[in-house]
Specification:
InterPro entries: MED33A/B. Helix content is 62%, strand content 0%. With 406 residues, the chain is mainly α. It folds into 3 domains: 101 residues, no CATH class; 53 residues, no CATH class; 179 residues, no CATH class.
């Protein structure tokens, strides 16, 4: 692309770069440099260059409109799958031809920042959590909630050109291009725990630790009640479950519940270094994981007695067996005991109240073991409720449990 046989994109590359930086500014992701200086020329892979040369020569009239409507998405997808900064170069070329398409082309180019950079995707996910919880320092995402997560789309309706885009909008445009969803789920789980840790730190009494008044996101939070903290925990868990379900569907949810969560509990997790929060971090993290698991299962398989997939029964049987084996002492856990107790009580409590049909898909012997374990924790009401949800077959076991507790 020397500017004679081809139009040169160099005149617009700087503008495209600045607009991309502005769009992703709310995510905190660093945009790779487009303009390197020197004598190096912007280049495109040969298949993409051929496609661009074919489409860019068409006149913008009604006769060619049908062709461009067909070729446009194909060109965008091809450029997005090519190495960086192919899509940015295409945007710079087409912006010279059709200036009114500039916003759309630049926004499409901004998405490709995340296609080949796992660190950028992780940073985008982090921004989704901080925006939703109101912990972001960005003016676009400082209010919290869905409004901060999704914002108001994108465009140049504000002064100064393109406005920053909320992280949720960017993620909705790039998640289909993420290749390794298992790593993505691990990142979501890790970010959920970090978010809950930050929430827990704001509940610590003021006199206990002045250092915790300022969160790691640079914002100063007032002291909030435990009820308010639990509300934030539920929001974080629902966001995490939504991201997992959206990114990988039922297969990723199955992997999360059957493999990732058990592995996480078996490993050592140091979430409260120094014990500054008095164990609050572990308790809230346990509840967050309970909501995270139940929400993910509800998104994937629903709560109806007749499951949309037989996979739900296999996953629930496997997870309940893991819980029972850990309560029996057959499995040695690496996580904190208060976290584990909060998770088990929270998970089973949510299942009993919200998804009772899941209980009926679990073997009665496993439910007996779970009830005995809950009884050792003085969770008699939950133990009885769990057996009651199992149906008439479990009434004998429930009666024995009630009589044994008297």
């Amino acid at each position: 692309m020397n500017g004679s046989d081809w139009p040169s994109p160099s005149t617009n590359l700087s503008m495209v770069e600045e607009h991309i930086k502005k769009i992703v500014a709310a995510t905190g992701v660093d945009v790779p440099r487009l303009v390197t200086g020197g004598s190096s020329l912007a280049t495109l892979p040969l298949p993409l260059a051929a496609f661009v040369s074919l489409t860019i020569t068409y006149k913008l009239d009604k006769a060619s409109e049908r062709f461009l409507n067909l070729a446009g998405p194909a060109l965008e997808n091809l450029a997005a799958s090519c190495p960086w900064p192919s899509m940015a170069i295409v945007a710079a070329l087409w912006t010279q031809k059709v200036k009114r398409w500039s916003d759309f082309l630049v926004f499409s180019a901004s998405r490709t920042v995340f296609h080949h950079n796992n660190d950028a995707v992780e940073q985008l996910l982090r921004s989704c959590f901080t925006a939703t919880l109101g912990m972001s320092s960005s003016s676009v995402c400082c209010c919290g909630g869905v409004a901060s997560l999704l914002g108001h789309g994108f465009g140049s309706h504000c002064s100064g050109g393109l406005s920053p885009v909320a992280p949720g909008i960017l993620y909705l445009r790039i998640f289909r291009c993420i290749k390794d969803c298992s790593i993505l789920a691990e990142d979501i789980l890790s970010l959920l725990m970090l978010s809950v840790k930050d929430i827990a730190e704001t509940t610590v009494p003021r006199q206990r630790s002045d250092k915790l008044k300022k969160s790691k996101y640079g914002m100063r939070h007032g002291q909030v009640s435990l009820a308010a903290a639990m509300t934030q925990v539920k929001v974080a868990a629902s966001l995490g479950a939504t991201l997992v379900w959206l990114s990988g569907g039922t297969a990723l949810v199955q992997s999360l519940i059957q493999e990732m969560l058990p592995s996480w509990f078996l490993s050592v997790q140091n979430l409260d270094q120094g014990g500054a929060s008095g164990g609050m971090v572990y308790k809230l993290c346990g509840h967050a994981l309970a909501y995270f698991a139940v929400y993910s299962g509800m998104f994937a398989w629903g709560i109806d007695p007749v499951p949309v997939s037989r996979r739900r029964e296999r996953v629930m049987r496997s997870h309940f067996e893991f819980l029972a084996s850990a309560l029996d002492g057959k499995i040695s856990l690496g996580c904190d005991l208060s976290l584990w107790r909060a998770y088990v009580s929270g998970f089973l409590g949510l299942v009993v109240e919200c998804t009772p049909c899941w209980v009926q898909e679990v073997d009665l012997k496993v439910l007996r073991r779970l009830s005995n374990g809950l009884r050792q924790w003085s969770e008699d009401k939950l133990a009885v409720a769990l057996l009651r949800r199992a149906g008439p077959e479990a009434m004998d076991a429930a009666a024995e449990l009630i009589l044994g507790s008297e």
